[in-house]
Amino acid sequence: MNIYYEGQVIWAQLDANQHMRHSAYADVAAQARLNLLESLGSMPTKLFELKIGPVLFKEELNYLREITINDHVKVTCEVISSRADSSRWTFRQEVYRGDGVKAAVIIVQGAWIDTVKRKLTPLPPELSELFTKAPKSDDYVEELPKSQNQNK
Predict the structure, then answer these.
(1) Are the C-beta atoms of 32 and 93 separated by less than 8 Å?
(2) What is the DSSP letter of 26?
(3) Looking at CB atoms within 10 Å, which of 12, 30, 89, 102 has the fewest?
């Protein structure tokens, strides 16, 4: 398992039913993705210096089991698809409770954005090379560039 976040569920992460609230799942998933990028070689710092950041197009969250106060969660993170140049990507993340039960599956699709120009941008080659070292799922698929997809 590629665990990139572990932590205790705190009071502020609960909803009115005393379960982990929907946005708390997104928060721990985002932190796991950031931790994954950090493990690749301080990639978040380099992205910040270049004024490049991740942007999400779609976030899908499937709840499987409840998580409650003081439980401990572990969040996995792996790439399930990306373009060869790392410009577009999809992550699958799984959230596990402290007892090892899978509580949620999160799929996010995104790309990189120039935070000054507010336009999508490819990664510089050295960061693209780092990104290609991210853990990939067993069902990983390399996507074709948009221009090649339109020709099919």
Answers:
(1) yes
(2) H
(3) 12
Give the H/E segment covering residue 62: strand 52-63
Taking residue 74's Cβ as centre, other Cβ atoms within 10 Å add up to 20
Q: Are 72 and 37 in contact (CB under 8 A)?
A: no
- Predicted pLDDT at 150: 55
Model confidence pTM above 0.90: yes
Query: Tokens 């992460």 sit at which residue?
Result: 13
Q: What is the pLDDT of residue 144?
A: 85
Chunked into runs of 10 residues, the chain (152 residues) has average pLDDT values of 96 96 98 97 95 97 97 98 96 98 98 97 95 97 76 54
Neighbours of 44 (CB within 10 A): 16
Evaluated on CA atoms 28, 9, 23, 74, the torsion sign reads positive
Q: Are 122 and 128 in contact (CB under 8 A)?
A: yes
For residues 114 and 52, give the distance between their C-alpha atoms in angstroms, rounded to a whole number: 5
